[in-house]
Amino acid sequence: xxxxxxxxxxxxxxxxxxxxxxxxxxxxxxxxxxxxxxxxxxxxxxxxxxxxxxxxxxxxxxxxxxxx
Length: 68
Hints:
The chain is an all-alpha fold and 68 residues long. It has helices spanning 2-21, 30-56. The chain has one domain.
């Protein structure tokens, strides 16, 4: 059952990405397809973070972020 729940989380994530950004890739070359898929995953993560910010009332502070 523990493995099933992990699988259901992954399948739910893929379903969310397909619903939001489409179920196909437009690029023809493999490297371009890989980059397109990674961009969709990043966009999905940003959408989920923004949703949780508003749902949980979190106000992120980006002033103290160290990007080195």
